[in-house]
Amino acid sequence: MGGRSNGDIRTEFGQRVRELRARGEMSQEILAYRSGLDRTYISGVERGERNISIVNIEKIAAALQVTVEYMFSAERFKDPPAYQQKDFIVPFGERFKYHIDNEKKVLAFQVHGLLTAQNVEHMSKTLLGICNAFGKGELNVLVDHREMADSSGEIAVYSPEVAERAVIFQEQLINYSKKVVALCNSEFMVQQLNHVAQTSGIIEKATHLFENDMVDRAYSLLDINGNDLIKADAK
User: Fold this and answer.
1) What is the pLDDT of residue 233?
2) Which of 49-53, 122-126, 229-233 shows the lowest per-residue confidence on average (mean pLDDT)?
3) CA distances from 137 to 94, 174, 194, 202 (A)
4) Nearest to 155 by CA among 46, 20, 12, 10
């Protein structure tokens, strides 16, 4: 950040907070509540008007479910809010796909577009119904979130409500899962899913990937050569 004024640094950091908040449908009020800071303070940070302390940077990062280091990473997003009504025109049934490989004991599922809390409830009931046919720790789970994006094609992560439901789903999935590997749309999603998995207690079984050839890497982690739903050349 050498050569820039304090105002430039404050403006850049404020933009960073705003874009991460907007990609996960988190209002200033929710961010303020989760970080233990006042909403007017958060508003001032986003406008580049606050000389924010390291302590408050840490609070905001934790509320956004990312590390402090990630707040300063090169990964950037547009900041128009996701989770608008237009993002849900296509029915969830057309955007949620799953496949069970009984021989290899792999449950694969993918989601295109964004999720609501109700979508997660439906998905959980469907997938846990499949899991009931298997014993404790028998299933490997392969999740494809690479196409989680809003209607304009901009990637997004879980909203606060979706993240809460995901924790509940994972708490139930722990009983059946051997390994869980998730393909992510960004490093931001890796950070968020790590937090969700830590909260649910599934973190020791879970690996979240965002890298080149991540499908092949997922196959290797699950000790499989391929999958009928999630292909190595999928985009």
Assistant:
1) 64
2) 229-233
3) 30, 8, 20, 12
4) 20
